[in-house]
């Protein structure tokens, strides 16, 4: 079945088509969807065992059955085998056969922020399919679990009773992303003191974040259903408010940006897995870890820019290179250096032919002393000032710069300090 | 992640049967082998299992039954799968008397594995049935 046919079926809440589209998204297919906001995307996060699945079950079963409800529940993948044991459905299975409810388990597949790009793609697919509510249950890994805030219109943070010490830990991560803070398992008598702690914490954070930050704090028991109706009412009111104030598109924008970021992380992960040679060189101490990363991304390492050759007759030299099949530029006079220059283009570097304009030029003296041949090697660096200071620190004399030329900023390291090589540094601007 | 994720499989307990130690061990072993394993929990109806497999786009269903109702429940499962157009392999584990094996295989079950089957064998069977080399 083609993707267009699947999309059309998904529009009619065909769960098999939705499931296949999500699998395709997990495999890297990027369906082009024109999304008009209609779903209330609700992220549910909190520590493992805080009651996320049970609360989603309690909410979803109370939502009128003429509303389409999608539940994405995320479990961790093993970083070693890639496998995943996914048990979140257990608490929701009673809802599996309801026509209005679609439940999908997704594995993190190596991502560390709790979501991966396929999760975001799945949200897109479900909104396209016309879901009224999309619940996203995160892995529940504390501070690293905050990506959900970029895709959800509403974030619920669950805090189970007797987690007083954990509230301290939650401050910097989860305490910043919640729209609704929930003391879960409120059937437990200890929930009252957790509730008070949480209220105090919210007050404290509000002093820092400002009065506009007004999260709700609620006590809920997913198991017994206490407080669930009130929670759903608050959720719906919030959605209407977002629609009215036109802020619903905010999370669509951040959703798109997050998908890009997550896809980039995934590609980077794949590049790393393929770069075993670089890894080996780091292990053997040939490269520092950071040098290896910059090399992986093709950045940060000095690159060969050109090799300069001093010649007596530039027209003759240019003709020879042209005859060899190289692309050769027209001669240019550079008065400042007293030379005529021709560039021979290579794949990712150049050969620079230099003919002196007068017997006084340094290039003329070079030829007189050593004959025709390689005059200097030029490398391109990202930060010439930094490079110059490193060169000076290791006791090399830097001459003739940094000065601004046609190609950018340049400076030279004297050949007497570098085994007879005149090294030009170039920073293109 | 060292390998591409393997296909998603469902492990389910069918019927009024709370003995799920074996099902959990199998689910865990398959996860160790790199599969994404959705465990449904106990007391599932055949239609719940089929719906789960559809919504998860699963590539295989593993059923565990120790209650003795395997012929009725698996028969019902196969019937609903056919009705819903779900065409993926089903394997059955648990306490299955030898004389019922043939009946299950005739229903279209891809394999029946009783107690004592080595985990490695189960993993190899699931790999083969889901097309993992």
Order of adjacent strands in the largest pleated sheet of chain B: 2-1-3-4-5
CATH H-level homologous superfamily name of the largest domain in chain A? P-loop containing nucleotide triphosphate hydrolases
Overall outline of chain B: globular
CATH topology of chain B: Rossmann fold
The CATH class of the largest domain in chain A is identified as Alpha Beta
Strand content of chain A: 15-25%
- Beta-strand percentage range of chain B: 15-25%
Q: Label the CATH architecture of the largest domain in chain A.
A: 3-Layer(aba) Sandwich
- Sequence stretches where pLDDT stays below 50 over 5 or more residues of chain B: none
The CATH homologous superfamily of chain B is called: Cobalamin-binding domain
Task: Report the count of strand segments of chain B.
Answer: 5
SSE diagram, text form:
The complex is a heterodimer of chains A (429) and B (133).
Chain A: H1 3-11, H2 15-26, E1 40-45, H3 52-62, E2 69-75, E3 84-86, E4 101-107, H4 117-128, E5 133-137, E6 154-159, H5 164-170, E7 180-183, H6 191-209, E8 216-219, H7 228-244, H8 248-274, H9 276-283, H10 289-296, E9 303-310, H11 314-323, E10 327-328, E11 332-334, E12 339-345, E13 350-356, H12 362-370, E14 373-380, H13 384-393, E15 398-405, E16 408-413, E17 423-427
Parallel strand pairs in A: 1-5, 1-6, 2-4, 2-5, 6-7, 7-8, 9-13, 14-17
Antiparallel strand pairs in A: 9-14, 10-12, 11-12, 12-13, 15-16, 16-17
Chain B: E1 8-13, H1 21-32, E2 36-39, H2 46-56, E3 60-65, H3 70-83, E4 90-94, H4 98-107, E5 111-113, H5 119-129
Parallel strand pairs in B: 1-2, 1-3, 3-4, 4-5
Helix pairs in contact in B: 2-3, 3-4
């Amino acid at each position: 079945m083609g993707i267009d046919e699947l999309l059309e079926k998904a529009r009619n809440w065909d769960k098999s088509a939705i499931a296949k589209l999500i699998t395709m998204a997990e495999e890297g297919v990027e369906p082009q969807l024109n999304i008009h906001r209609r779903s209330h995307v609700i992220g549910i996060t909190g520590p493992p065992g805080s009651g996320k699945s049970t609360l989603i079950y309690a909410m979803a079963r109370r939502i009128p059955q003429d509303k389409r409800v999608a539940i994405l529940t995320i479990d961790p993948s093993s970083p070693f085998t890639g496998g995943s044991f996914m048990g979140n459905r257990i608490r929701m299975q009673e809802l599996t056969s309801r026509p209005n409810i679609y439940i999908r388990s997704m594995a993190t597949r190596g991502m560390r922020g709790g979501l991966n790009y396929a999760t975001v793609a799945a949200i897109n697919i479900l909104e396209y399919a016309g879901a009224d509510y999309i619940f996203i249950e995160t892995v529940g890994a504390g501070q690293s679990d905050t990506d959900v805030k970029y895709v959800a219109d509403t974030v619920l943070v669950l805090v189970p009773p007797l987690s007083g010490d954990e509230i301290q830990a939650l401050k910097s991560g989860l305490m910043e992303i919640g729209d609704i803070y929930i003391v879960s398992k409120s059937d437990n008598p200890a929930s009252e003191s957790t509730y008070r702690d949480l209220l105090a914490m919210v007050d404290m954070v509000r002093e820092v974040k400002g009065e506009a930050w007004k999260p709700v704090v609620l006590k809920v028991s997913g198991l017994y259903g206490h407080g669930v109706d009130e929670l759903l009412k608050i959720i719906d009111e919030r959605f209407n408010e977002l629609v009215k104030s036109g802020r619903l598109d905010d999370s669509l924008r951040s959703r798109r940006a997050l998908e890009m970021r997550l896809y980039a992380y995934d590609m980077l992960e794949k590049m790393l897995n393929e770069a075993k040679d670089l890894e080996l060189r780091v292990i053997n101490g040939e490269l520092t870890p950071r040098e290896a990363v910059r090399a992986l991304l093709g950045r940060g390492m000095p690159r060969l820019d050109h090799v300069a050759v001093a010649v007596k007759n530039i027209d003759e030299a240019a003709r020879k290179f042209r005859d060899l099949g190289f692309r050769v530029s027209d001669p240019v006079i550079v008065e400042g250096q007293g030379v005529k220059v021709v560039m021979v283009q290579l794949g990712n570097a150049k050969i620079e032919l230099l003919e002196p304009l007068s017997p006084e030029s340094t290039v003329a003296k070079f030829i007189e002393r050593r004959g025709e041949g390689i005059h200097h090697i030029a490398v391109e660096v990202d930060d010439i000032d930094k490079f110059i200071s490193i060169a000076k620190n290791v006791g090399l004399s830097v001459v003739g710069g940094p000065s601004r030329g046609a190609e950018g900023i340049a400076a030279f390291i004297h050949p007497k300090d570098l085994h007879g090589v005149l090294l030009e540094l170039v920073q293109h601007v | 992640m060292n390998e591409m994720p393997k296909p998603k499989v469902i492990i389910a307990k069918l019927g009024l049967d709370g003995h799920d130690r074996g099902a959990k061990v199998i689910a865990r072993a398959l996860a160790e082998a790199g599969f994404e394993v959705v465990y449904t929990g106990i007391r599932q109806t055949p239609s719940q299992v089929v719906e789960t497999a559809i919504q998860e786009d699963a590539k295989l269903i593993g059923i565990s039954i120790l209650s003795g109702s395997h012929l009725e429940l698996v028969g019902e499962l196969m019937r609903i799968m056919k009705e819903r157009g779900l065409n993926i392999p089903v394997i059955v584990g648990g306490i299955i008397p030898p004389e019922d094996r043939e009946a299950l295989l005739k229903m279209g079950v891809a394999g029946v594995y009783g107690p004592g089957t080595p985990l490695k064998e189960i993993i190899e069977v699931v790999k083969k049935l889901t097309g993992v080399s």
